Amino acid sequence: MQKGKLFMSNVNVYLKCLRSAKVAKPDVYLKDVCNLRCADVFLSAKLRVLKVWHFEKKAPRRHVVSTLRLVELMEEACPQITVEVIGETDVLIEYEKEERKNLPARAAKITLVCLVSFLGTAFTIMAYHNDIGINAIFTQAYAMLLGEEPKGINAMEVAYSAGVALGMLLFFNHAMGRTITEDPTPIQVAMRNYEKDVDSALVETAERNSMEEENSK
């Protein structure tokens, strides 16, 4: 580094953008939407606090920033750098204001979701069993094995019910706030796929709107 210069010259900066990023403040900085790697620590610190977007009060709470735009802002702030882009080509930024935790409201929401999930699952299972005639199947199986029809609840029904509960725990890989194995649960996989689909749809919509605006000019 030459005397009088703060930053190194001809520095390679590696930029790895996130697919989506959530921020709690209207000002969005480079560090919020990507990972940055640079040999010059002073240059890296300057780039990390580079403002890339600002959410207005009445503006939409989602915005897509192109990686090319980020590179342009970085080169304007530090002309001596060479940016190497790794990863995503667009970043979906979502602005969510910080809200005070309302424990009673959160507890009520959790309780409502649990009740809906439990009652919905129970209704689905009962409707399926009624559709296939599970009681008649158990009665016939019990009579074939023991030579008489069951009277009330029998061991076969209890074992089946326990097997259904155990099978659900093993399938969803989650019990009492803990996972049985290190693999992600089916619900987590479904949610991640859903988030990817939503992000891709928003990014593609933003790109299409941007192209339409450019063509109309």
Short précis:
The chain has 217 residues and is of the alpha/beta class. The protein has helices at 30-33, 41-48, 67-77, 103-132, 134-146, 155-172, 186-216, and strands spanning 11-17, 20-23, 27-29, 34-38, 51-54, 62-66, 81-87, 90-95.
Per-chain topology:
Layout: E1 11-17, E2 20-23, E3 27-29, H1 30-33, E4 34-38, H2 41-48, E5 51-54, E6 62-66, H3 67-77, E7 81-87, E8 90-95, H4 103-132, H5 134-146, H6 155-172, H7 186-216
Parallel strand pairs: 1-7, 2-8
Antiparallel strand pairs: 1-4, 3-5, 6-8
Describe what you observe in this structure.
Helices cover 53% and strands 19% of the residues. By secondary structure, the protein is of the alpha/beta class. It folds into 2 domains: 11-95, Sandwich (eubacterium ventriosum atcc fold), CATH 2.60.480.10; 103-206, no CATH class. Strands 4-1-7 form a 3-stranded mixed beta sheet. Strands 2-8-6 form a 3-stranded mixed beta sheet. A two-stranded antiparallel ribbon has the order 3-5.
Report low-confidence residues grouped into runs of 5 or more: 1-5
Order of helices and strands: EEEHEHEEHEEHHHH
Structural class: alpha/beta
Tell the overall outline.
Answer: elongated
Average pLDDT value? 82
Number of domains: 2
The largest β sheet comes out as: 3 strands, mixed
